[in-house]
Design brief:
alpha+beta, rod-shaped, four-stranded antiparallel sheet, 38% strand
Length: 117
């Protein structure tokens, strides 16, 4: 009887650890989904309500997802953009957040054609 209780105790302990790891993984996946959504939304709205300007913009979403948008004219020495009323911009978004003791970060970038200043 004592051996059976010991085996059941080990099985229950192992199952608890598996469930705890699953819950932690689910929370991490939710955080990554949120960070990607913040980055995509930031890229999608850049230059929509106001003209694109070279420089950086920072913000905080939900009190823990810090984002940074960097806008710079795209410069390709091999293929310079012909002069005209439009400029090609490179947009880069970084989203960082805390995950327990770790600091996590994702980055997305895109190009956007906009009227020259």
């Amino acid at each position: 009887m004592l051996i059976a209780l010991a085996i059941v105790g080990l099985i229950v302990g192992t199952m608890a650890m598996v469930f705890r790891n699953g819950i932690a993984s689910h929370a991490t996946a939710d955080d990554i989904d949120t960070a990607v959504a913040v980055a995509e939304e930031t890229l999608a709205t850049a230059g929509v309500t106001a003209p694109l300007k070279t420089g950086e913009t920072r913000g905080l979403f939900a009190g823990r997802f810090a984002w940074r948008l960097a806008v710079a004219p795209y410069d390709d020495a091999a293929e310079p953009m012909p002069p005209g009323p439009f400029t090609l911009y490179r947009l880069e978004v970084e989203v960082a957040w805390g995950d327990g003791p770790r600091r996590r970060q994702i980055a997305l970038d895109s190009m956007r054609l906009a009227r020259a200043p």
